[in-house]
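Lecture 7 notes. Example A: sequence first, then its C-alpha cells.
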Amino acid sequence: MKLKCYSVFLLTLFLLEGQAQSKSKDVLFTVSGDSIYTSEFIRVYNKNLNLVQDESQKDVDEYLNMFINYKLKLKEAKSLGFDKKPSYIRELGTYRQQLAQNFVTDSNVTDALVEEAYDRVLNEVEASHILVRVDQNASVQDTLDAYNAILKFRDSAIKEGFETVRKEAHNGQTVFGEDLGYFSGFKMVYPFETAAYNTKVGEISQPFRTQFGYHIVYVKNKRKSRGERTVAHIMVVDKNGDSIAANSEIRIQDIYKKLNQGEDFEALAKQFSDDTNSASKGGLLSPFTSGQLSSQEFEDVAFTLDNIGDVSKPFKSNFGWHIVKLYDKKPVEPFQNLKSQLEAQVKRDDRSKIIDKALFDKLKAKYGVNNHQPALAYFGSLLNESYFKRSWQLPADFERDKIVFKINDKPFTYKDFGDYLVKNQSNASVKETYTDIVAKAYDSFLNTSLVQYQEANLENENEDFANIVNEYRDGLLLFDLMENVIWNTTQSDSLEIQKFYDNHKENYFFPERMDAIIASSAKQNIIKRVSQLLASNMDLDDIKNLVNTDGEVQVLFTSDVMEASHQALPDNFELKKGVSKIYKHHDAYVIVQIKDVLPKKIKTFEEARGEVISDYQVAKENKWLEGLKTKYKVEVNQESLNKVKSQIKNQ
C-alpha cells in the first residue's frame, strides 16, 4: 500500500515515532490540555535533521512552530471525526496487516536466503529443460509414471545429447522441451532456479519437482550478470511549428554527422538535445541497471557499448531519436545496496515457504506449543462425501468446548478448529483420505493461529512496529483533513480563487521573450557568412542549402520563441531585434537573429490557473492555521524549551 502524503514536512518530518510512549515526563507544550513531551520533539528533530532542505527548519524555534502546526492539525482531524470514518479504519487496518508481514518472520533464515539470492543475481545461467507435467494433487501412480518418464528422458539425453531428446520429446501437452536462454535469480520458480544454479556447465541435473511437474535441466553456460551503465545522450523530438527541425530523424542524422566531423558530444548536447533535464550537463544521465529504464530500445543500445567513450549510431525509442555515449560501466551493486530489494523478492516467491516453516517453529517455541499433533481421529470420523462437495457442516452433537491447543494462555477449542475445517473444505481433493485432510488442516490452522496471535500482539512485542503504525495513523488523518479542508475545495472556492488572482495578478507573468533563429557552428568563418546572409534577409532554407553542402552539416539552426535563458544562447544575452554579434558558447560559434521581442506579459487567469490555485491553497491554509490557534489553546513550557535548545546545542 502506498502511503498517502501531501508534504515533505508533515509526513516525512513529523510522522516518525510521533506517538510513541514518552519515557520523559517533561512537557514541552500542550494543545487544549493534551501534553506533548520534550522527548518526542527531540527525537523527531534529530531523526529528520539531515532530511530538511530549508535551513530555517533547523532552527529550534522555527521547527517548534511547524511541530505545533502539525499537532494542531491532528487535533482538528480528531475533532471533526476523521478517525471514526469507516474508510479510515479500513485503510489503517489493511496497512497494519501488510506492515506486520515485515515483522512476523524469521530473520536468520531470511538473511541466508537473501545472501543466496544476491549470489544468483550476480550470475546468469543459460539452460534448456524437459518437463513432464503432473498435477500437484495427482494420484500416487500418476506421480510415479511422471517420475519414471523423466528418468527415461535423462538416460536418453545422456546417450543421444540433450538438445536432440528435448526437441523430440516436446509435444506441448504433457511433455515440454524448451530452450530458456539466459536467466538469473528470481526469473524462475525457486526449485527450478536452485537446480539450474547447482548444476555444472555441460551437465544434466537429476530429476526434480516443481508445481508444474518433474524436470531435468541442462546447463549450457554461466556468465556474470550485466551491471550498471552511465551514459550521456542527445535526444531530438518533433516540435510543432519548427520548420528547420520538423523531421526529427533528419535533425539527429545532422547532429551525428557533426560528431563524425570531430565536434564535441557534450557541446552538441548542450545546444541541441531536447531533453532539458540532461542537456545542461552535456546529456549526462544518472546511472541505471538492466530493466530500470522505461525504454527497452535505449537500454539495449546502452549495454552494447563496450568501451568508455563509445558513441552509438542514431536510433529511435518511444521518446524520440537518440545518440548515446558511454561514460562508465559498473558490475552489479554491492550486497548492502540491494539487500532490502532482495529481501522483498525473497518473501514473495517459493523461498517464503522456507521462511514460513522457520517462523512457525520459532513461534511454537516462543509460545510453548509442542510439535505433536493431538488425536485427530475424532475430526476424521466426522467427515463424509459432502466435504468434497463443499456442503459439509459440523454435526449438532459436536464436542465444541474441548481444547485443541493453547498459545500462551489463550485456548483454541474444537469449535475453532471445526469452523476452520468448514471454511476451508474447498481445498480438499477427492484423492486425499479423511485422515490426511484433517492432519493437513490442523497444521495449517495451528500455523495460522500462531501468526495471527503474534500479529495481534505486535504493538506490545515490538516498539518499532508500534511507532510505524502510529506514524501511518497520523499521516492518514492529516491527508484526509487537508484533502477535505484545503485541496478539494477548488470548485466551491472558484470565486475566491478568481478574487485572489485579481489581487495578485502581477505575480503571474510571461517574462520577456524573443522570436529568433539561432545558428551554431564549430567554424568561425562559416558563422560569419551566415551572419551576412541573415542580415540580407535571405530565406532560411536557402541559407541552409548554401552552408551545409556535400552531406556535411556545418551549421545547425534552431528557430523558436524562447527566453533569454534558452540553452543555446550565451549567458546574459541581450534581447534586441536584428542580427547579433558572434558569440563563443559551448565550444561553438553562435549568432542570433531576433525577428521580434515579446515584452513581459501578465498571464490571463486561465494561463496562470495552476499557479494561482497552488498559491491560493497556501494562503488559505495559513489563515486556517491561525484559526486553529484560536480554537485550541497552545501553551509552551519555556523552561522545557530552554532545556531542549541546550540539549540540541550540545549534542
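Example B, a different protein, same format:
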Amino acid sequence: MRSRLALSITAIALLGATSAHAAPAPATTTNNIARQEVVREEQGNRVSENIPAIPAELVERLNRYQNTRGAGLAGWTRDGCLLISTRFAETAQAHRVCQPMGMREQLTFYPEPLGGMTVAPSTSKLDGFVFGKDKGGDEFSQLYWFDFASRNTSLLTDGKRTQNGGALFSRDGSRMAYSSTARNGTDTDIWVRDVASGQARAVVSAGGSWSAQDFSPDGQRLLVTKYVSAAESYPGVVDVATGKLELFPVDGGKAAFGGFAFAPDGHAVYFVSDEPLAGKAQEFQTLRYHDPASGKFEVLTRDIPWDVDGFTIAEDGRHLAYVTNEDGISRLHVLALPSHREVKLPALPIGVIGGFSFAPDGQRLALTLNSATSPSDVYVVDLAGAKLTRWTQSEVGGLDASRFVAPTLIRYPTFDKVNGKPRTIPAFYYRPANIPAGTKVPVVISIHGGPESQAQPVFTPTAQFLANELGVAMLVPNVRGSSGYGKTYLALDNAARREDSVKDIGALLDWIAQQPELDSSRIAVQGGSYGGYMVLASLMHYSDRIRAGVDIVGISDFSTFLTNTESYRRDLRRAEYGDERTPEMQQVFAEISPARHPQRIRSRLFVAQGKNDPRVPYSEAEQIVKAVRGNGQPVWYLLFNDEGHGFKKKANNDYYGAATILFWQQHLLAK
C-alpha cells in the first residue's frame, strides 16, 4: 500500500502481535476523559477489539440464515451445459450444470473466490473458460484458463501486483482482449493476447480506465470505452493490428455509455447511452442502433423511461436481449434481428436479473434471477415456446421460504423541492409480519455504497433474520446520487453537495417518526464502503436520533482516502468526490469528514474492515476507531487479515454477521 497515515495504537499492536490473545491495550484519550481499556483478541486471520463472545444460542439461531446460498450464471459451454458460480464450502467456485435441476459439478477448488468467468465461444476451437482470482481480497486479480478436456489451469497474465479483468474473446477464439494495469500500475490499458502463441501486447495505452467491449466478426477491430465516471464515458474503435485508436464523437460533449457491440453484419453497432436526442437532453440510458454507412439511427427503447442495464447478442445473430431497470425491478426484453421486432416471453418472477447469455444454438436464453424472497438462481427461457425453466434451486438453510418478507417500495419527502413540490426519495421497506397492534418495532436503515450504486430488492438473509427472528424493520433508501433514477438525480450529491445525501437520511428519520408501527427511539444505521461513510456522517449529524451504527470498509476522511486508495482508482474517485488537492475541496472535506469531528459521534459504533482493501484502505477504519475512542466513546472493531473490500469467505462473513446481530441486541433492541 502507498503512503499511509501514522499507524494508530491498534495497527501497531496488530503488526507486533504473535500470540492468539494479545494483552489489552488502552485507547488514546483527549480532553481528560478517562482512558478506555481495549480488549483485543486475535484468532487466525481475525482481529477483534471490544467484541464480546458470541453466545452459542445466537450462533445456532443464525445458522440456517447464514447457510443460504445462490447461483450465478457465467455462460454456456459448447455442449449445452451451463457454467455457474456458487459456494459449497468457504468461497464461490466454478460449477457446471448440464440439465434443469441437475447435479452441480464443481470444477475449481481454490481458497479464494473466483470472479469474472468468461466461456470461450462455441464457434472457436477452444473448450474452456477464463476466470479471475486475487489473493485475500487485494483485487490484484490474475486471469487463468481452465481447460475442460484436461481439467488443467494455466496462468495467462503476469502474476504480479497488477489488476487484470474483463476477458473478451474474438468470434474464432484466436484472440483475447482484457484490461490490465501492467504497464504502469495506474492506467488501465487494453491488451490483446494471441491465444496460440500466448503473446500479449497493449493495443490501447492512452491513459485512464479502458475496457474492451466487442470484437468485430472478423476479429480485426475492437470496440473500446474509456470510463471517467458514472456520467461520463468515451467510446471508440481500435485497429487490432496497428493499435490505431479512433474515438467516436459524443453528442453534447459528455455522456454516459453502457454496452457497445457490433451488429451481426460487422458494420452497424448497438450501444447504450444517454446522449442528447435531436438536441434534447436525456435522463436515462437507452438502447440505440446506428449504421454509419447508411446513416440509419434508431432508439430502440424510446418509450421506456428507465435505464437499460445491459444487452447481449446471440452468436447466430438472430436475437438481441436487453434488461431495463424500472424502479429497481428488472424487466427482460428480446428483439428479433434485424427487424427489431419484440419477441414474446414467458412471465418471469419479479426480481433483479444478473448475467444473461444466449445458448450456442441461439434459441435459449439463460439468466440469473434474484428476488427479495429467493437467493439468486439460474433460469432458461426457450424463445420458440415462450417457456421458462428453472435450472438451479439454491438452498435457503432449511428455512420456510413462505415466511420471508418481501419489501414494499415507499417514497418519502426530503428537504428540497422539484417543480415546487417536495423531492421524494425511494426506499425499500422490509416490515416484520404479524406484529401485534400498537407495537412499535425498531428500525435498521441500510445504506448502499457506490455512491453511484442502487439498492434493489434482492435476497438478504440479514433482512429476513431481523424481520422474522428479532422483529426489526429494515429500510433501504436510494438517496440522491444513486443510479437508476436519471442523470440529474445521479449528480445531486457530487463534490461540495456531498452532505445533501446525508440530509436525505435525516428526512428518513422524520418519516420514521411519523409511522405508527415504527419506534423512532430505536433506530440504527449500517452501510459499506461509501455507505460506511454515510453511516459515520449520519451519526455525526443525528447522534441524538440514532442509537447505533455499523460501518463496513467505510471512508472516514475523504482527503486521506483519496491519498491512500490505490492509484488506479484515484482519478475515478476524484471525478465523483472532488479533488483533494484543491483548496476548495480541502475545505469541504475538512467540514464533512467524520474523522475530523469525532466528538460529534455519540452513538455506539461498530467498525469492520478487510486489511487488504485496495479501495478503502484499512487506515480509514483505524483512524475513525482511534478518534471516536479518544472522545470516550466505546467502539467495537473487527479486522480480517485475509479480506479486502468486503467479506467473501464464509467463516469470516458468518462471524461478522453474528457480531453485528449481537451489537444490535445490545445497543438497538434494549429499551
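Note on Example B: Residues 650-669 form the longest helix (20 residues). The mean pLDDT is 91.
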